[in-house]
């Protein structure tokens, strides 16, 4: 397995964990969910946020699973 494939797999797992926690705890704030995902995956909160938003190098050309919550992170 190449490094790119491993990173894509990691990014997909981070996104899945985020959406699972969001569904399980609908009253949690988004930043609390990001912090929990970061703690479980040993990633910085900003990295988790970038993965969820498909930003920069974390854009692995995969289609977003759910776009309704992703728009909460975009700063204009």
Question: Could you characterize the architecture of this molecule?
Answer:
The chain has 76 residues and is mostly helical. The protein has one domain (3-72). It contains 3 helices and no strands. It has helices spanning 3-24, 30-41, 45-52. The longest helix is centred in the first third of the chain and has 22 residues, at 3-24. It starts with a helix and ends in a 24-residue tail after the last helix. The mean pLDDT is 86.
Secondary-structure topology with pairs:
Elements: H1 3-24, H2 30-41, H3 45-52
Count of structural domains: 1
- Radius of gyration, in Å, reads 12 Å
Summarize the main sheet.
none
Q: In one word, what is the shape?
A: elongated
> How many separate helices?
3
- Averaged pLDDT, please? 86
Fraction in helix: 55-70%
Q: What class would the helix/strand composition place it in?
A: mainly alpha
Low-confidence stretches: none
Count of beta strands: 0
Strand portion: under 5%
H/E order of the elements?
HHH
Cα distance spanning the termini:
37 Å
Short synopsis of the structure:
By secondary structure, the protein is an all-alpha fold.
List keywords for this structure.
76 residues; elongated; mainly alpha
């Amino acid at each position: 397995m190449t490094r790119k494939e491993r990173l894509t797999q990691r990014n997909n797992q981070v996104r899945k964990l985020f959406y699972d926690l969001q569904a399980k705890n609908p009253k949690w704030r988004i930043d609390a969910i990001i912090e929990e995902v970061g703690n479980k995956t040993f990633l910085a909160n900003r990295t988790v946020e970038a993965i969820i938003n498909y930003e920069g190098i974390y854009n692995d050309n995969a289609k977003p699973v759910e776009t309704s919550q992703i728009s909460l992170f975009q700063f204009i």
